[in-house]
Amino acid sequence: MPTPGNVLHQQLIQAHGELQHELEAARGEIAAAGAELGQLSGDRGDALLDLAQHYLPELSAEAVARTLPEIRQWVRDLLVRKQQHVVELDSQIRAIEEERDREEARLADASAELDAMEAKQEELAKKVSDKLAADPEFSALSNKAGEAEAALQRSEANLAEIEQDSLRKLPAYEKSSLFMYLWNRKFGTSEYQSTGITRSTDQWLARYIGFREARKGYEFLKTTPGHMREVIAEDRQALNLVMEELERRRDIVAKEFGLTDLLERLKVLSARRTEVVQKLETIEKRSQELQAERTRVDDTRGPYYQEAIQKFRDYLEKIEPRMLAERARSTPAVEDDLIVARLEGLTEEMAQVSEQVRHRQQVVGFLTQHLQSLGTLINRYRAAGFDSARALFTSHFDVLSELRQVREGRGSYEAFWQRLRKSHRWGPSPMDRAAEVAASPMTQILIHAMIEAAGAAMQSQVRQAGRRRADHDSPFVLRPPTFPGPFGGGGGGSDIFGGDGGFENHGSF
Fold first, then answer.
1. What is the C-alpha separation between 192 and 187, in angstroms, rounded?
2. Same domain flag for 145 and 243
3. Residue 457 · residue 441 · CB < 8 Å
4. Could you list the residue range(s) of the whole structural domain that residue 284 is in?
5. Worst-scoring range by mean pLDDT, 193-207, 216-230, 268-282, 487-501?
6. Comparing C-alpha atoms, which of 84, 80, 35, 85 is closest to residue 356?
7. Domain count, the chain
8. Is the sign of the CA dihedral 172, 175, 178, 182 positive or negative?
């Protein structure tokens, strides 16, 4: 059973929300690990201070008191700046997500209203169509349109046939220098002026190559397509006149039932929905930018980390831990050994927590990338209008399961989108099924009413007349012949000379 597009749309939004929640949870773990690192870093600083105060006589207590608080305060200020930046970004992300929720609600309302209005449109369209089909004059005009279409189809088929004959047979005439010699001298017409021996020679040549009969075939192939195009233009004009009258009657009845006003409201509502979709695209783009910046700020190799680690390195260059450990081992006291052991333990713990942070940061980057890809897919889904209840998907989609597979590397968002797109079809209305042509609602109503009003023998021609009218601004395109030509057989009128070429070249000068 087909799945409505609005159901899949809700599943996509649910998947996006779950991914957003998972990303926030991962960031929370990073924040907790960051707090732990901060505590460990503080403890390590205290240990370094204790160690310095214990056995570095060249560093007086006054000097240590002047140096370490300065570094601590700088690091504290850096962390405060980072936290303020994170708070600001989180606030902006919350605001953009709240705006997204509002626009999602607007989109859902607009889509529901659009679906309801389209249902009303179909109801009114049927009433208009039924009234037109019951009108005897409309019925007579519909049959007349079918007859005009049939005449036009015959003319087009004949033209296609004669043009194919011309392409196949004219070269045989024009490659004959003997035939073209007589043709260019206008032999056999009142314009031929030669006398005497020239005239006698030309008469003999004409008999030799069968020129008089060949000239008729050549004239036919050269002139008939032009005449037939004139006939087609007249047939098309006759059809257009009938169709214009049918459209005029349709418009009167459509206005009577309020369908014209409804279609205008539909146009406005559709434009409003498009505006909301575009707004959501802008929101998604801004959200992706904020999420990327938020990830960059939390990155263990991000700007704040680089600034902090550089400062800390400068500090460690002045107090080398290895030298401190060597000095501790060289002294008889055990206090400094205990402090160094505590310092080494804190350093190892910091390395473990840092590794955890790096791992979680990779997870955050992974989730951020998938969140952006899913957001882009949802935008494409909406832009295509697939979130409408009239959009149907013939394949079964377990959206949450399939998106999890994409995250696990068993597929891609593009492949998932292509599957969605290829399995989509619009739920047909009665007008769609009758018209079987992508056209405006008013054109579909006209075709449906004409088919209902016309006689059974004319329905196929009537449908084709409506299709032709829907494309009446398009350039004329020859269709393959579907009716036999007026001369019978496969060769058409130009076959009077026989053979595939229409003329046998008896030689040339």
1. 5
2. yes
3. no
4. 9-113+270-378
5. 487-501
6. 35
7. 2
8. positive
In a domain, 405, yes or no: no
d(CA 392, CA 426): 6
Nearest to 305 by CA among 25, 34, 29: 34
AA identity, residue 374: L
Q: Which amino acid is at 368?
A: T
* Residue 174 is assigned to a structural domain of this protein: yes
Please state, in angstroms and rounded to a whole number, the distance separating the CA atoms of residues 220 and 235: 21
What Cα–Cα distance (Å) separates residue 227 from each residue in 67, 219, 220? 104, 12, 10
55 domain-assigned: yes
Cα gap 310→333, rounded to integer Å: 33
> How much is the average pLDDT of 362-389?
81
In this prediction, residues 314-331 reach a mean pLDDT of 58
Q: Does residue 118 lie in a domain region?
A: no
Helix %, strand %, coil % of the chain (to 5): 80, 0, 20
pTM of the model: 0.51
* Same domain membership, residue 342 and residue 280: yes
**CA–CA distance, 501 with 491 (Å, rounded to integer):** 11
Distances (CA, A) of 203 to 22, 140, 212, 215, 218: 98, 59, 10, 14, 18
Q: Which amino acid is at 404?
A: R
The number of beta carbons lying within 10 Å of the beta carbon of residue 321 is 15
H-run or E-run covering 424: strand 424-426
